[in-house]
Amino acid sequence: MREIHVWGLGGLVLGAGLAVALTLTLGGPGAAPAGTPAAPAAPAGAGPGAGGPGTGPSLGDAESRAALLARELEAERVEHAQLKARAQELEAEVRDLTGRLAAAGKGPERERGPRFRAPGLEAALDGVDWAEVGEALGQMAPLLEELAEHMASGKEGFPARVGEIQRWNGPLVTAALGLSQRGVPGTGVNGSFTHPWVLVNLIATTLEAAGKPLDADQHERLGRLGAAYAAEDERRRAGYPEDGLALERLIDEARLKERFYAEADALLTAEQRDVLHPAAIRGRASIDLFSSGLILAQGVVAVRFASRAEFEAGVLSRATSRFGLQAGAGDAVAFGEALGEWVRGLPEAWLAAPLDPMARGGLAMQGGLGVPVVRLLEAAEHTLRLYRAVRERLPAGAPLAEQLADEVSFVLPVGA
Fold it and tell me: For residue range 271-288, what is the model confidence (pLDDT) as tens digits?
């Protein structure tokens, strides 16, 4: 079984937690809050019977009592206003701190479980810490923007903060491996990580972590979208012949997921889309974490060339190494013949189309990194035609035919 990786393996290291203590001292039972004016003492002789046995309060006593009560009422009003203002301050502070704690994955709003339940995949989804994964994806996006800028600049090597990318990628690797091991379908580990039921949960939790959660209508519509695409993906996987080509399945899976991403984006606000995949990296393999580039980049074989003859020789060299072809053997002859026809039939405009600086910079780091997903899909479809042409020239059961049936690698031309 072919091992397929999520971009950059790395561990997750969380910083120290935020400690918060809110203390409001109001004194003991019955004590007045600090700053409350003390009630004035009752005037001497005031009170029931002050006028002597059997007599009521005098007019002077009533005036004094009324003045006393007026002062007490005013003191109560001042106290109420002070307490109300303090309560509002504390409520605002609690909201702020709770939001910060939730964003750091430590607050009471942090929910570990899935936001969408999937029939048949309950156990697989329950095994993921969705709050942790959502936070990691949210942290990755701006870092990947910086990486894209570095790639486009033409500078050599990796940027200074690549370690942070690998650190936040750790929870994604853990989640993807777990989903694959628990039977979530898809091509390789990244295929499991981008299953429609997984994606709706990734979208929801990433937006929550960024403080831009789905509203009730978006949540409902995204759930329906996930269910519809999960059902379509199941039908797709069941519809291939036993001797079908893995590369064809990969292409179909990528196209289905691209349609899902487009429809999901249409449900979101511009701000929410920028949280998931900022415009600068949108549609770029392995740096847009909400695109089918995650599953396509795993198969890229970049071949640099200055002429068609050089391109043909480069592809043949890679295939010879990959499939163990022996010069003069039947499978090598079949591959060479099919390859020659294939290269001659490639459209010049497509073969010679230059890659932009970001894609070239990415290829210098890792195959497929930063290449537009559209370009990778085209390259995969052209390579699929080559594999079919080779198989047509081979006898049934030939070892090379079986190798091609399981192959998801494809050729990406990189002109000089």
Answer: 999 999 999 999 999 999
CB burial of residue 389 (10 Å; 0-12, 13-18, 19+):
middle
d(CA 220, CA 217): 5
Q: What is the mean pLDDT of residues 292-305?
A: 95
Pick the more confident residue, 181 or 89. 181
Q: Which two tokens stand for residue 197?
A: 């039921």
Please say if the pLDDT value at position 141 is more than 70: yes
Q: What type of residue is 200?
A: V
- How many separate helices (H) and strands (E) can be counted in the chain? 16, 2
DSSP 91: H
What pLDDT is recorded for position 356? 95
pTM of the model: 0.74
239 vs 202: CA distance, rounded Å: 27
Distance CA 146, CA 148 (A): 5
Listed in sequence order, the residues at least 6 apart from 17 whose beta carbon sits closer than 8 Å to its beta carbon are 104, 106
pLDDT tens digit string along 68-110? 777 777 777 767 767 766 766 665 565 455 555 555 555 444 6
- Taking the C-alpha atoms of residue 247 and residue 299, their distance in angstroms, rounded to an integer, is 9
Closest C-alpha to 219, from 199, 204, 202, 197: 204
Cα–Cα distance, 193 to 173 (Å, whole number): 9
Q: What is the pLDDT of residue 61?
A: 67
Q: What long-range pairs does 40-47 form, CB within 8 A, spacing at least 24?
A: 40/68, 40/71, 42/68, 43/68
Q: Which residue has the tokens 């990947």?
A: 144
The DSSP bridge pattern shows strands 410-415 and 300-305 to be: parallel
* Side-chain half-sphere CA neighbours of 404 within 13 A: 26
Smallest CA-to-CA distance from 311 within 320, 302, 300 is with 302
Residues 6+ apart with CB under 8 A from 153: 357, 361
**Residue 355 contacts residue 370 (beta carbons within 8 Å):** no
d(CA 136, CA 128): 13
Percentage, residues of the chain above pLDDT 70 = 76
303: helix, coil or strand? strand
What count of Cα atoms within 13 Å lies in the side-chain half-sphere of residue 214?
23
